[in-house]
Amino acid sequence: MAHFDYAREDTGNLVLLEHVNLTIPDQRLATAFYVSGLGLTRDPYLMTGVTNMWINVGRSQIHLPHGDAQRLRGHVGLLVGERPALIERLRAVQPLLEASHFGWTERADRVEVTCPWGNRYDCLDRDASVPGDRWSGIDLGIAYVQLDVPVGCAAPIAAFYREMFGASVEVRERNGSLQAVAAIGAHQQLIYAETPEAIQQYDGHHIQIYVADFSGPYARLAARGLTYGEEKHQYRFADIVDLASGAPCFTLEHEVRSLRHPLYARPLVNRRAEATNRNYVMGGETFGGVF
User: Fold this and answer.
1) Please, which residues bridge with residue 61 across strands?
2) Which of 137, 138, 140, 167 is least surrounded, with the fewest CB atoms within 10 Å of its CB?
3) With contact defined as beta carbons under 8 Å apart, do 14 and 214 qualify?
4) Tens place of pLDDT for every residue, the chain, 291 residues?
5) Is 278 a member of any domain?
6) Which CATH number does the domain housing residue 178 bear?
7) Is 71 within the bounds of a domain?
């Protein structure tokens, strides 16, 4: 009888990193960058007006309400298809975005792309070296959100997610600094990377996660006075603290939803950006492997 390491199949309590929320002041530039440049898809069903736009990335989204530009204190890792097609799209939108922060740099395993307001997206080559086969067969999705945190915060942040959420978290070393890496579902990660650089002031951006055990984390967070915004299927918290001392480590609003939330696992439309009216083939306008 074959023997398997079934621990490799464990995912912890965090199920899906569903969206990153960043306010933006101009939907025209956002459309040029996210839809035409990155090749993503604006959700055709929800938030179709001029005050918000939801951008589909596999099973996840980037939410872009209208407002002063917010900047993530870190960057987002994306899978958006093949590199040559991405570079072609970025070159095509460059004239529209010349007066902004837009730009890109090619690396060995990714293309670092900066949005018009300074947010960075690492567009990863699908065969980028990662432990195990986390992205095997995946063409499109949010792979991770990485946040810059002060030196000394990785270990207490890891303990926070383990004890508050029952998450699968490791502390690892990368390029001489420590990172707390929380696994989300089978394919995603939330990474807190220590840096000696000054951390920019928090401007209210947030992430949204789905959890299997909804009430347990709520009770533990509420006991420490950390929760707010309670609704039927969701609650929020922002302060990540050292559980031993109570000292704050980092602030990032988390919108925490249960698997009974009506939007959980809603099928999202994801177009294949290479499809045009000139090369159209029936059934060839949508992406295959997504997460």
Assistant:
1) 19, 56
2) 137
3) no
4) 677 888 777 788 999 999 999 999 999 999 999 999 999 999 999 999 999 999 999 999 999 999 999 999 999 999 999 999 999 999 999 999 999 999 999 999 999 999 999 999 999 997 654 544 567 678 899 999 999 999 999 999 999 999 999 999 999 999 899 999 999 999 999 999 999 999 999 999 999 999 999 999 999 999 999 999 999 999 999 999 999 999 999 999 999 999 999 999 999 999 988 877 787 777 666 766 666
5) no
6) 3.10.180.10
7) yes
Are 224 and 241 contacting, i.e. CB atoms less than 8 angstroms apart? yes
Boundaries of domain holding 22: 6-258
Q: What is the DSSP string of the chain?
A: -----GGGG---SEEEEEEEE--BS-HHHHIIIIIIIS--EE-SSSS-SSS--EEEETTEEEE--BSSPP--SEEEEEEES-HHHHHHHHHHHGGGGTTSS-EEEE-SSEEEEE-TTS-EEEEE-TT---STTTTTT--EEEEEEEEEEETT-HHHHHHHHHHHH---EEEEEETTEEEEEEEETTTEEEEEEEESSPPPPP---EEEEEESS-HHHHHHHHHTT-EE---SSEEEEEEEE-TTT--EEEEEEEEEEETTSTTTT-----B-TT--TTT--TT-SB-SSB-
59: left (phi over 0), alpha (psi -120 to 50) or beta: alpha
Does some domain include residue 269? no
> Exposed e or buried b for every residue in 76-101, given b needs 16+ CB within 10 A?
bbbbbbebeebeebbeebeebbeebe
Please tell me the total count of domains within the chain. Answer: 1
